[in-house]
Structure formats: structure tokens, C-alpha cells
Structure prediction request, 152 residues.
Amino acid sequence: MKGLLISVTVSILVLSCAPKSTQVNLDKALVFFEDIDSLCSIDDGKLWGVNLYGPILIVDSETRTVIANMPDNENQLKRNYGVYVGELPKEISIANTTVEWLGQNWAMVSMNAISSESEYNRNRLIIHESWHREQKKFGVKFITSSNQHLDE
Prediction:
């Protein structure tokens, strides 16, 4: 009985210290993508002339795991639980931005930047980056500016 109790206690401790399951992130990402698809379908390109739902990457900055809403053009991402999973190469910086990778242009969002409290803020961020992915089509140039005053 004592051996069983020790085994159960050790198992509980090991499981409670284990990192969060990737499945949890896949579940969340699938909901995020479904929400964005739904919101973009409501507009259906009326505002900008193009539906903003397109290639999206959500990146875990600790593991560099990417969760995408659609397959890539080079078939590198693996379908898993309704999303596509892979690993972002070290030479690509993780940021809320757009990125050319695996043969297409993606909206990239860091999982750390996604609000867990506000669905509105999460959707706004992902749609914002999706707009940047498409901004060349609108004729809006990328402008890089220095915002040093924000550090003061």
C-alpha cells in the first residue's frame, strides 16, 4: 500500500510539473482561426476589397512551434487536429508581423502577445497582422519609423 501511495504521489507531481500540452495550444489556435474566419466572412472584403482571412501563423516563442490555419505551399507543416504544425527556423524572428516562409506570405502572431482575457483584443491583433499581410494589394507602402520617444 505504501509503495502504491508513493507511485501515485510521484505521478501526480510529475504530471503537474509537465509543460502544458501542445493539444491545448492546438485547441486554442483552432478556436482563434475559426473566430477570425467568421469575422472576416462577415465583412467579406467589403472594406478593403479583399477578405482578410488568409495564411496565419501563431508562434510559441519558447519552442518556436508554429500553428497555422492552412497548409503551406511546400508541404512542410503537418496537419494535426484541424490545424497545421511545424517549427519556425531560428533565422526567422518571432514578431507580430508578416513573413515570407514556405512559399507564401503569412500573418505571424506570437502566442505570448495574444490576450487570454480579451477575445476582442486577440481578434483585433490577428486581423491587424492579416491586414499587413495584404497591404501591398491595397497600395499602402510599409513605413519603418523610429519611435525613440516611446522609450522616454
Remarks:
- The chain is about 35% helix and 20% strand.
